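Working notes for the structural subgroup meeting. M.R. asked for a predicted model of this chain before we commit to crystallization trials. I am recording the input and output together here so anyone reviewing the notebook later can reproduce the run.

Input as submitted:
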Amino acid sequence: MKKVFLVFFVLIAAFIFAENWIFEMQTIELPTGNGKNEIYVFDAPDNLIDVPDEGPIVFQIDEKGSIYILDRYQIKKFAEIGEFVCSTRAADIQIVSFVVQQNQIWTICGDHQNNVYLRRFDDNCQLIDTHQIENRKNSLAVNQNGKVGLNLGNNNFLEFNFHGNELSTTDGVLMNNCLLDFNVREGRQKVLIPEENIALDLNEIWPNDIGYTLFGFDQIGNLYFNIYSEPRQDSSLGIISGSGEVIETNVVFPHYTKFGLDFARGISNVVTLNGAIYQMIPMPDKIEIRQWTRVE
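Returned structure, recorded in token form:
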């Protein structure tokens, strides 16, 4: 009974003492086209109903604010002000996912024989090495400690380690102090903080909304969510701190389809380990990167 009462009390306290964070936005614009310093987009004619638009859906930000975008077969790097820096060579194997960490671009690549490779590039987009790895069908991630590896789900993490040119792996965790108990079919969407004996039900925190998507976390354990009131419409930013506090914000993410393109897949937002938030909005005539930083 004590445990149930404590969880209930902490949940109520989180609502009472919810903080309100204010963010400021700035915008970086990148050109579209077929040039080396441009990002490819295809705006399908309206009469071609079954032909989807094409364009970038995966991007990353490094600790300096540089922007990395997967442009079909290669990754292109732009400075934080939008100036083109470099690009990887068009890959002989397809890049599936990538992260930027430790001044390197880490990619997971695959070939037509279902072989999977870990391929690294330096911050000048030059190839460092390629290692064939087990095909686990998991995406690359950076855990809360800043280590690169595979997100295996249920907070399980396979960390990549290099000793010279030798690659090894160790088992670890994605987040240090939080667990996610999500089962949409059963209507269960909870954040668990075992050390504090806290269980937060997202359906009770945001009862008037239809869905929530965790798109990242920072180095102190704050969780960043897209909160949706309607499908394929604007979403707002909600944050749950590592200690279980609910944080309201002034951030609204417009749905990218409002700006003229509609891809077969969605585009995830990015939060850096220092808490900067980014959204990519592809448009027929430009790529817009929106950055939000906290001011109070």
